[in-house]
Amino acid sequence: MIKFSRVRTTLSGAVVIPSLIFILGICLLSAIFPQFTESLLNIIKDFIFVNLNYVYVWSVTIFVLFLIYLMFSRYGNIRLGKNNSRPDYSFFSWISMLFAAGMGIGLMYFSVAEPMQHYSNEVFSGNTATQRAKDAQLYTFFHWGIHAWAIYGVVGLSLAYFAYRYRLPLSLRSCFYPLLKDKIKGTWGNTIDVFALCSTFFGITTTLGFGVVQVNSGLETLGVLPDSNFIYQVVIVVVLVSLSIISAVSGVDKGVKVLSGINIVGVVVLLLFVLVLGPTVYLIGSFTEGIGIYINEFFSLTFNTHVYDSNTQSWFYDWTILYWAWWISWSPYVGLFIAKISKGRTIREFVAAVLIIPTLFNFIWMSVFGNSAIWFDLNVANGALSQLATSPDALMFRFLEYLPLTEMVSFLVIAIIIVFFVTSADSGMFVMNSIATKNARISPKWQTIGWGILLATLALMLLNAGGLNALQSMTLITALPFSVIMLLFIVSLVKALSIDRDYYERAFSETTVPWSGDSWKERLKQIISFNDKESIDKFIDTIVKDAFSELQKELAENNIEAMVNFKENPHRVEIEVPYDIVNNFVYGIKNESRIIANYLLDEDNLPDIEERHVFFPESYFGDDREGYDVQLFTKKELISDVLKHYERFLEMVSEERNRMFISRDAHQRLR
């Protein structure tokens, strides 16, 4: 009885309890006092958008430039996992899943609505219809292009790298490991996960709420439902969330993967239908020209804050800044999901695929639907579609009335929205459970079901009370602090990548170059020992001093004057060959220290280490080149190393082109 009375759970109380308190608190406020909550949150949101919009602009710009740099840098070959790991999913399945999670319902909701709203916006009413059509396409490209996917890419790459390369939990807290180290296991890590869970929940809830409204509107347009009634919305939510739960419980390899593949096929069929039966020549031409304009205006759009144009500033806040905030607020959810399915990809492959492929598809999609709607509005509808620009729920279905097979295609659109709904919800449940359990490998299915029920309940509660807009504002507000967190992700990732590259590319020590099998036992003792200051001083005063003194005598026999110098702070000895015209040749050995990692102090399979500071003899040269540890050199090998550098010195001073580096007074003669 005791065994069965305990409910098995993998949920982390430190993450779940504060998250649920905050989520339920905001949702209840939005449902009970929708107007007050929406008004208050809008004031905060407007303040951020007006006074701190540059944070979003600079953050998104840095994300784009950083990922492009990584794609072409030497770090691009680093694999998200072990060096011999391979991807878990085929390229098509991978692209299908990240695409469905990243854009989903938004493509159906805004593909006609956004271009039409830009086209009919009063801010641009002074322009010609042709110019407004071009601008509508350009701004839609800007909002749904590389910038949006760069936001997702930064989070997804950071998560995948630290999870599969560092073998840390697939959690946002893991992205701070190079900065916080083991502190990610405590309060700092819990705080980051609470923020991610709340942001993910708010983003999914509002998006699914708007998706339900669009499905209801589509079914009403087709005559399946008599009106957009809350009762019908309850039925739609229950059916769709039930399907989402079934898909989520089936796992990523089954439900999400299969549905994403089906959806991509459906989307391509719909796209080709509109392209072929719509104004085909106009669409292909406008897409081609639109790509050129986008590339030409890329940097201007990226850095434009409209500070010199007060007429378009409100539009800028309501569209560009809102979009950046929206994508950032969604990035914990999308990033976690993308990371989950990206194990085994190289950084270059990840960045190229995430930035380019979905962006190109979005451009094609938005061009076909948005430009078709504008063309119909200009040439067929006599402005009827422009008048519906403020009703995005119905605009897609009204647009389809100007194409053949309207009813059949409308049902296809609803089916695609439903599958997008299901894929967004099931991947959302998976991600939320992953955050709430600190990425537990196996969790009971009731937890996934519980997240689905919570999503459905709160979405319906807010739909009924009219609180979705308030929750949307809350989602956008959370984007500001998370944009700062994402910038820290980049700092952490750069630090980790440099360490990663150095680890795999570090060559053998200079000391090992002249080794043979002689005296290997003595060398082994030296390798596994950790020296104190006194033992290194003794090495310098004996082996190094004897080597330099013997070399000094041999140089004198060859009519070359040399000096052996002793200095302190740090303790060191050097051999110097003086010259009048060129800089003196100097080769020295000094007593240096380094700090070893804490975890080695407790390592049983190493010799005892009493202090974190260990000492070693390091070489240095007269031209400030970087030295190296020479403690494994024998006396003869040390003499050989000095001669190697002396030969290099003589070769360098004999070349005229090196005058600025080797001449004592070259800089004075050039004054």
Automatic annotation (TrEMBL):
Annotated protein name in UniProt: BCCT family transporter
Pfam families given in the database record: BCCT
Lineage, highest ranks first: Bacteria, Pseudomonadati, Bacteroidota, Sphingobacteriia, Sphingobacteriales
Signal sequence residues: none
Bilayer topology annotation: Multi-pass membrane protein
Transmembrane segments: 12-33, 53-72, 92-112, 141-164, 191-210, 230-252, 264-284, 321-339, 351-376, 408-436, 448-468, 474-494
PANTHER family named among the record's database cross-references: HIGH-AFFINITY CHOLINE TRANSPORT PROTEIN, HIGH-AFFINITY CHOLINE TRANSPORT PROTEIN-RELATED
Presence of the UniProt keyword Transport in the record: yes
Compartment list: Cell membrane
InterPro entries: BCCT_CS, BCCT_transptr
Keywords linked to the UniProt accession: Cell membrane, Membrane, Transmembrane, Transmembrane helix, Transport
Domain of life: Bacteria
Family in the record: Belongs to the BCCT transporter (TC 2.A.15) family.
